[in-house]
Design goal:
Elements: E1 16-18, E2 24-26, H1 30-49, H2 54-75, H3 82-85, H4 92-107, E3 116-117, H5 122-145, H6 152-174, E4 180-181
Length: 188
């Protein structure tokens, strides 16, 4: 259970912060960059939800909760210790749920015949922003995983989430103006 009585602690005033293990690291450390960008993804999805309705909004709400799980996973590196063994981790079941939701949305969409430009409805435009922030989070996680432990399911989740957000943007556009398609060389 999380209890926050005071929001500011002053412990990070000199440019460092604590991981879930209590270890102090620089605020620009790769692990902090990774889960900070996961948080940015979550905020971008929150903006997209202002224009989402029905099942799309419900799916995005589940994703937002998952992103807190992902942040918690990244916040406590798996060092093989007892605390890490009990830590909240992203699971394959969360990845599988994303895949089912992608497939369900995609079944309702026409096949793509061109690349999609970010835009269309407000929800779709915001989902495309969230997708690009998610891709950045994934790149940072992959880079982090070269030097430090990052869970396999966490990496899969970030990869699948960007696919989910792409299909969700198309899904949001399907009930409105449709996708905005790239026209190669249109402005030559």
């Amino acid at each position: 259970m999380v209890v926050l009585n005071r929001i500011y602690t002053r412990t990070g005033d000199k440019g460092d912060t604590a991981l879930g293990s209590g270890e102090r690291v620089a605020k620009y450390a790769p692990r902090i960059e990774a889960f900070g960008t996961v948080d940015e993804t979550n905020a971008a999805i929150g903006v997209a939800r202002l224009s989402a309705e029905g099942e799309l909004d419900a799916m995005l709400a589940r994703v937002q909760n998952d992103l807190f799980d992902l942040g918690a996973d990244l916040c406590l590196p798996d060092d093989g210790g007892e605390r890490a063994a009990k830590a909240l981790r992203v699971t394959q079941a969360q990845v599988d749920r994303l895949e089912r939701e992608i497939d369900a949305m995609n079944e309702t969409l026409a096949p793509l015949r061109s690349f999609v430009l970010p835009g269309g409805s407000a929800a779709a435009a915001h989902l495309h922003v969230a997708r690009t922030v998610c891709r950045r989070a994934e790149r940072l996680m992959v880079k982090l995983a070269q030097d430090e432990p990052v869970g396999e399911a966490a990496l899969k989740y970030a990869n699948r989430l960007s696919d989910f957000l792409f299909v969700a943007a198309r899904f949001a556009n399907s009930s409105e103006s449709g996708d905005v398609l790239w026209v190669p060389g249109a402005n030559r």
